[in-house]
Amino acid sequence: MICIVTGDIVGSRKIKDSWLLSLKSALKLVSEPNNKWEIYRGDSFQIQIEPEKAIINVAYLKACIRINKPADVRMGIGIGEVKTKRKKLSESNGDAFTYSGLAFDSLKQSKVNLAIKTSFSEFDEEINVMLKLALIAMDSWGIVAAEMVKLALENENAVQSELAMISGRTQSSVSEALKRAHFSEIMEMDKLYRKKINLLMAK
């Protein structure tokens, strides 16, 4: 199974293009080692990532875009088989692509910025409830909170004193920003998601 994320930038026409550089560098980073990603129609994108890294990677993409406030991002996660692999993602097909498109198309109706779809409806129901709860925090990330989440995810083994040195902030301001972002809870969600997706893929 593979994971395809389809997304677009919310309100991109009303804001400066600073989000584009952030998006490109984020897509390059999270798509390694496959480097399978595309930006199309100006503000839409598609990326192939490892299924078990879906939550951590969409959180990273979200943080990278939220730095460019008031920009935000909507994403549909699809996990499934790939039928035809081509050089360009947009020319490939299979369940993962279909599910990603369906998850993305459901966002406006559900009035959320993130959703997942697989062939396992019970799994989808559970994870989508978790995502809705996580979005209460993620959709309200300010610039500093988003910066600290981005930095923490880029330096996953770093302690807060090291993040403070990298960012040039005090340890207390780093701690406060990550607390405000509900970073530890999102990491707990990622851990639970990985456990569930690995059980699913082992079937």
UniProtKB/TrEMBL annotation:
InterPro entries: SatD. This is Transcriptional regulator.
